[in-house]
Amino acid sequence: MLAEERWGVILSILDKQKTVTVPELTELLHTSESTIRRDLVQLDRMKKLNKVHGGATCIDTQYVMTDQTVTEKALLMNREKQLIGGYAASLIRPGDFVYIDAGTTTDRLVDAVSVSDAVYMTNSIAHARKLANKGMRVMMPGGEIKNSTEALVGADTVEAICRFHFTIGFFGANGVSEKTGFTTPETGEAMVKQRALEHTKAPYVLADSSKFVKVSPVTFAPFDAAQIITDRIRDKKYQKYKHITEVDT
């Protein structure tokens, strides 16, 4: 197969699934990894795709390697986050054992929480403070504080969370994709999200529509592992999924 033919196949795959790995392309095109890597380098130079570690993403996909600070995130998509958080808060019922992940969208959920006859666990120091000031019963796991997100992370946090079983939970994500699932930049935080989500009967990921064109290095759950609450998504391919709720903006 000529290089131009391979390039056409690679771009066609990216058009459909937005991300692809070198091993996937090696198997599909029946060629060596070194050849695929050279193809990706060339296509990246031509600005036809984004070459990333281990593969490539569609040109309209942003690869987010590091986490922004809470202050930086708070300035983005604020109205959408408020609507998502308000809708999510309406799902909490008396008697629930609620897990709330760290994040700025989950922070809007905390602002909207009104059910006092429930127990709340969070790995966010800021969330815990707000909930306590509202008079809610609040629990926190142990662990190390991640300064950029003000979240408790690490093995101690995971171990503590694994002792509990939540009726409903709300999670943040840096990236959302049908191919890569729910992603986040850092392994320690991904482990906490993964375990908490696995221990939640009804998990929800709160993600504004900008997250649907972003991919971060670590997947903490597959795309169908949780209900998704978002605003209006531009990419129409996501309209077929029944586990996505788009709030009106």
Itemize the secondary structure elements and their pairings.
Blueprint: H1 3-17, E1 19-21, H2 22-29, H3 33-45, E2 50-52, E3 55-57, E4 62-63, H4 70-74, H5 78-89, E5 97-100, H6 104-112, E6 119-122, H7 125-133, E7 137-139, E8 144-146, E9 151-153, H8 155-161, E10 166-171, E11 175-177, E12 181-184, H9 187-198, E13 200-206, E14 214-215, E15 218-221, E16 227-230, E17 244-246
Parallel strand pairs: 4-14, 5-6, 5-10, 6-7, 10-13, 13-16, 16-17
Antiparallel strand pairs: 1-3, 2-3, 8-9, 11-12, 12-15
Description:
The chain has 249 residues and is an alpha/beta fold. It has two domains: 3-60, Arc Repressor Mutant, subunit A (Orthogonal Bundle), CATH 1.10.10.10; 70-246, 3-Layer(aba) Sandwich (Rossmann fold), CATH 3.40.50. Helices cover 36% and strands 24% of the residues. The protein is built from nine helices and 17 strands. The protein has helices spanning 3-17, 22-29, 33-45, 70-74, 78-89, 104-112, 125-133, 155-161, 187-198; strands at residues 19-21, 50-52, 55-57, 62-63, 97-100, 119-122, 137-139, 144-146, 151-153, 166-171, 175-177, 181-184, 200-206, 214-215, 218-221, 227-230, 244-246. The strands form five sheets. It has a seven-stranded parallel sheet, with helices on both faces. The chain has a three-stranded antiparallel sheet with strand order 1-3-2. A three-stranded antiparallel sheet has the order 11-12-15. β5 (97-100), α6 (104-112) and β6 (119-122) form a beta-alpha-beta unit. α5 (78-89) packs across α6 (104-112), α6 runs parallel beside α7 (125-133) and α8 (155-161) packs parallel to α9 (187-198). The chain is elongated.
